[in-house]
Specification:
- It is built from three helices and no strands.
- It is mainly alpha-helical.
- The protein has one domain.
- The radius of gyration is 16 Å and the shape is elongated.
């Protein structure tokens, strides 16, 4: 996610959290966040839920990028024979 995306994820997570605090069930809050456009993009409910719990459990650090384990390795499909 990096900082710019992390900031966006924080806004989306805050949106969901505020909706839940106002009495909306989490499922409905995620649906409302899913229906909204965030910087011209829409995010799936599972992604929004992941960000919500990551922020809730780990704060902003939970929204930071996790480097790929295969970073720097070439990924290619095997040729069919």
């Amino acid at each position: 996610m990096g900082f710019p995306e992390g900031a966006g994820a924080l806004r989306r997570g805050a949106f969901v959290e505020e909706a839940v605090k106002s009495g909306l069930p989490l499922r409905r809050a995620l649906e409302a966040a899913h229906e909204r456009e965030w910087g011209g993009r829409r995010y799936g409910r599972p992604t929004l839920e992941d960000w919500y719990y990551a922020y809730r459990h780990h704060g902003l650090a939970g929204l930071e990028d996790i480097p790929r384990k295969d970073k720097g390795h070439v990924r290619a499909l095997a040729r069919r024979r």
